Amino acid sequence: MAQSVAYKSSMLRSLCVAVGEGSPWRRSYAKLASSSNAEGRMEKQAEEEGGDDGFAVSSGISRPLSEILKQLNKKVPDSLVKTRSESGFTSKYIPWHIVNRIMNLHAPEWSGEVRGITYSADAKSVSVVYRVTLYGTDAEIFRESTGTASVDDTSFGDPVQKAEAMAFRRACARFGLGLHLYHEDLS
């Protein structure tokens, strides 16, 4: 039964990413579920699919954007920060999967999408534009950023994957996540 609840919750959350621009499901699930009309539709759908199995529509996940941003701006523990050396230059970074977990923890109503993939004219590099959107109870905001990787450099995986991870981390940094690392590098 617990798997069924987790599976349904996961499927409902993924709907906001899977549907197109004009759909009411494009908004975050918690926002949609907070209206009584939507709650009634979801409860009716759950009954039609086999009765009440403990699945409850929750609208208590979202918080005001100011609270979400306050959490994202906190210093990331040093144990989660990695160091990379390239061409004699050392930099600190937070791996994309850790950034993803932090976003899920502090901003569970977020979404991300690749907005564009562009190869340079000489086909030696690829750039990815990534957008991260935060949904709060009072508003929603987004930030975009780019990441660029050399097509020849496969040391950290596929070049497009590397550029996407870089763009994702940078877009999250525009909300304040891990921004302290940029300031440490300057000092």
Automatic annotation (TrEMBL):
BP terms from Gene Ontology: double-strand break repair via homologous recombination
Organism: Prunus dulcis
Protein name: PREDICTED: DNA repair RAD52
Chain intervals for the UniProt region annotation (Disordered): 33-57
InterPro entries: RAD52-like
PANTHER family hit by this protein: DNA REPAIR RAD52-LIKE PROTEIN 1, MITOCHONDRIAL, DNA REPAIR RAD52-LIKE PROTEIN 2, CHLOROPLASTIC
Gene Ontology molecular function: DNA binding
